[in-house]
């Protein structure tokens, strides 16, 4: 039989149909604005959530009543909100539930190779939920005013307190806990019951605090937001803690924590550089238990696509965190030679917006390690650069700091496992390591981000 010929009665032009796995941007509800197929077209502003996680899609639908009126028929000269409202944390409190125990498809979308939830996707969902909560707080429920533009400004330290199983239902609860003039802090808690099922109460598996800032959607300038009125004792305590964090951020921006290098600091730099110089000048004599920082680097690049945009047309902040986490995990894996286990992500500032079409480069390295026999720590830095080849420019959009350890079960199987010290080759690298160590120690002593 001629391999190039088609079997009898076959149609060589028959194509295999491919269908979208996302929800349709059309609804089977007839109306006066029905399209040619009798379907109602959703506003284009609600489409971006379709291309993210199932949670993001659901949250976009939840926001539809607020945004639909604006994007379907945007008022040309709509005034800003005239009077600020007093709102309670309860008015913005939002809960999402992952029905992992009963929804097989959802479970598979979030499963990692170790039967736990993919942390990168969870970070993406946290940002989306925080955005929805900020919209609820800032809404004045007046269809004649223009809504605010709300963007992620920063993320406080996110700490994983226990493994998150993909077989047990998961819940995220969030609410606004503090408000400044044009900024909002949202606290999110991820809870899950124990695997054994003996205790029906949920325990906190992960907590995170997001800072959003409000801009006037017409002028782009900072805009005032609705005030917050905490009611319960816990809400009042959370407000006070958030106020303290805000004051600390102001001092850091104003240079309040800057200081001249002291003799002890110079000695730390010299100690770090000493081994690095041996690696550079006499590599055959270098300590075999150490490695140069530059030899731990990984990198990946991408062009930002329309499917990754948020409702304002910019690249979704959760998407950036997701990609940064995946690279950090890979860097820790390649460095340790064992499967890493995520512990926390330090404070993240969103310095520059990322647009559709931008050339984004993620660069990672192992910044330093803590050689603890019980729980070795691997501290990873990931820097996101917005690169413009035609302008010969590259700007930092975000810097992420992740901390990993290694899974105990993996370490137990590898006899003689050891983690290497990371040493700098330049004074700039040494200063950077010392600054990060001091920054983490400062936050720990002041109790922030816990």
From TrEMBL:
Gene3D superfamilies in alphabetical order: Hotdog Thioesterase (3.10.129.10)
Keywords: Hydrolase, Repeat, Transit peptide
UniProt-listed CDD domains: BFIT_BACH (cd03442)
Highest rank taxon of the organism: Eukaryota
HotDog ACOT-type domain sequence ranges: 96-218, 294-410
Keyword check for Transmembrane helix: no
Ranges of compositional bias, category Low complexity: 1-13
Spans annotated as Disordered: 1-39
Keyword Repeat in record: yes
Entry's family note: Belongs to the acyl coenzyme A hydrolase family.
Annotated protein name in UniProt: Acyl-coenzyme A thioesterase 9, mitochondrial
Species in which this protein is naturally found: Prunus mume
Encoding gene per record: LOC103334663
């Amino acid at each position: 039989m001629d391999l190039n010929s088609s079997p009898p009665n076959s149609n060589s032009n028959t194509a295999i149909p491919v269908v979208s796995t996302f929800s349709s941007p059309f609804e089977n509800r007839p109306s006066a604005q029905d399209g040619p197929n009798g379907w109602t077209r959703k506003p284009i502003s609600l489409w971006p959530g379709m291309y993210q996680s199932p949670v993001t899609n659901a949250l976009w639908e939840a926001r539809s009543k607020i945004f639909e009126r604006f994007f379907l028929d945007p008022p040309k000269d709509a005034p800003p909100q005239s009077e600020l409202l007093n709102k309670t944390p309860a008015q913005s409190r939002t809960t999402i539930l992952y029905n992992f125990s009963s929804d097989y498809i959802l479970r598979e979308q979030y499963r990692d190779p170790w039967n736990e939830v993919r942390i990168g996707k969870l970070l993406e969902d946290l940002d989306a939920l925080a955005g929805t909560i900020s919209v609820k707080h800032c809404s004045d429920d007046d269809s004649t005013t223009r809504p605010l533009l709300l963007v992620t400004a920063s993320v406080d330290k996110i700490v994983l307190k226990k493994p998150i199983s993909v077989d047990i239902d998961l819940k995220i609860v969030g609410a606004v806990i503090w408000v400044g003039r044009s900024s909002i802090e949202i606290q999110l808690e991820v809870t899950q019951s124990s695997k054994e099922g003996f205790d029906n109460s949920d325990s906190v598996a992960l907590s995170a605090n997001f800072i959003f800032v409000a801009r006037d959607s017409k002028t782009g300038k900072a805009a005032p937001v609705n005030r917050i009125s905490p009611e319960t004792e816990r809400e009042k305590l959370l407000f006070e803690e958030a106020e303290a964090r805000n004051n600390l951020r102001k001092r850091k921006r104003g240079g309040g924590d800057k200081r001249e290098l002291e003799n002890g600091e110079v000695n730390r730099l010299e100690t770090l550089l000493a081994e690095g110089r041996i690696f550079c000048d006499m590599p055959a004599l270098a300590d075999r238990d150490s490695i140069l920082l530059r030899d731990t680097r990984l990198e990946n690049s991408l062009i930002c696509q329309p499917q990754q945009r948020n409702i304002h047309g910019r690249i979704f902040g959760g998407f950036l965190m997701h990609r940064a986490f995946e690279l950090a995990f890979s860097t820790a894996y390649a460095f340790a030679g064992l499967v890493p286990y995520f512990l926390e992500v330090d404070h993240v500032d969103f310095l520059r917006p990322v647009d559709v079409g931008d050339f984004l480069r993620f660069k990672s390295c192992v910044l330093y390690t803590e050689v603890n026999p019980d729980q070795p720590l691997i501290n990873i830095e990931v820097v996101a650069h917005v690169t413009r080849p035609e302008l010969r420019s590259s700007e930092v959009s975000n810097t992420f700091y992740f901390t990993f350890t290694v899974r105990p079960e993996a370490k137990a199987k590898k006899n003689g496992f050891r983690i290497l010290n990371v040493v700098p080759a330049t004074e700039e690298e040494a200063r950077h390591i010392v600054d990060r160590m001091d920054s983490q120690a400062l936050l720990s002593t002041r109790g922030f981000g816990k």
